[in-house]
């Protein structure tokens, strides 16, 4: 993350990724499958390689019934991040690495089973997130079936219940530029730390999500939205620079930040 240039993925800037990575048919934004391939291999993938990855994730996406049941039984006042973390922890029942380790696999082959778990987890995360969203904000309506002919982001937006092409394109870009975290922040560091104990990828990722849920990390997005809502309630739609400055200083001087 060089300050003068901004974030780079394997040496490529975000505009370069937008230009070089494969896109969906008729789309303008890169597919996150392409960035995943770039991060793992260091190479820009072909359209065929990205299509294979989309179909591979679609094939691995189904959730075990006990995870669906658990999500359906959570109270509506349980924060979505808590639900996500719990669901990912429960997916540990599907860990190929944990099973292979218990069977005494040689450590030289650990990476193969970690890779399989990581692929399965990436495939299942949209289903978990969409299930939580539907339960909390769409009266528990079903997420529908995965379409193996659609890309990862398109399937996710369908499961959420949004079919606007602009929203689908936005989701592709959003998931692409959020696909890489270095080791310094709370969530990435936590996943590395927990994984170093040979905890499987499900447990390591769940731990990372608990770190991400903190207000000085991922929850900051929610905090900003709440702050903007409070600002609008107190000051209305038309706000002068002076009133906005006073509101900001009142927030800072309150000791809450």
From TrEMBL:
Pfam families: Citrate_synt. InterPro entries: Citrate_synth-like_lrg_a-sub, Citrate_synthase, Citrate_synthase_sf. The keyword Transferase applies. Keywords: Transferase. One of its GO terms (biological process) is tricarboxylic acid cycle. GO terms for molecular function: acyltransferase activity, acyl groups converted into alkyl on transfer. Gene3D superfamilies: Citrate Synthase, domain 1 (1.10.580.10). GO terms for cellular component: mitochondrial matrix. The keyword Transferase applies. Belongs to the citrate synthase family. This is Citrate synthase. It comes from Sitta europaea (Eurasian nuthatch). The lineage of its organism: Eukaryota, Metazoa, Chordata, Craniata, Vertebrata.
């Amino acid at each position: 993350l060089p300050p003068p240039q901004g974030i780079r993925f394997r040496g490529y800037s975000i505009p370069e990724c937008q230009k070089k990575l494969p896109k969906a048919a008729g789309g303008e934004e890169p597919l996150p499958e392409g960035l995943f391939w770039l991060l793992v291999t260091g190479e820009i993938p072909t359209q065929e390689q990205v299509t294979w990855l989309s179909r591979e994730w679609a094939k691995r996406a189904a959730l075990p019934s006990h995870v669906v049941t658990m999500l359906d039984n959570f109270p509506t006042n349980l924060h979505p991040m808590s639900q996500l973390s719990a669901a990912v922890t429960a997916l540990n029942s599907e860990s190929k690495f944990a099973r292979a380790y218990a069977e005494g696999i040689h450590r030289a082959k650990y990476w193969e089973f970690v890779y399989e778990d990581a692929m399965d987890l990436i495939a299942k995360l949209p289903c978990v997130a969409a299930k939580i969203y539907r339960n909390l904000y769409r009266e528990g309506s079903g997420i529908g079936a995965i379409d193996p002919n659609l890309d990862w982001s398109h399937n996710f937006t369908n499961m959420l219940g949004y079919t606007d092409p602009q929203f689908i394109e936005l989701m592709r870009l959003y998931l692409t530029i959020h696909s890489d975290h270095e080791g310094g922040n709370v969530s990435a560091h936590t996943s590395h730390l927990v994984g170093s104990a040979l905890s499987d990828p499900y447990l390591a990722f769940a731990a990372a999500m608990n770190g991400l849920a903190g207000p000085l990390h991922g929850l900051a997005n929610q905090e900003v939205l709440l702050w903007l809502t409070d600002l609008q309630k107190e000051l209305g739609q038309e706000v002068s620079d002076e009133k906005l400055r006073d509101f900001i200083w009142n927030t800072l001087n309150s000791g809450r930040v």
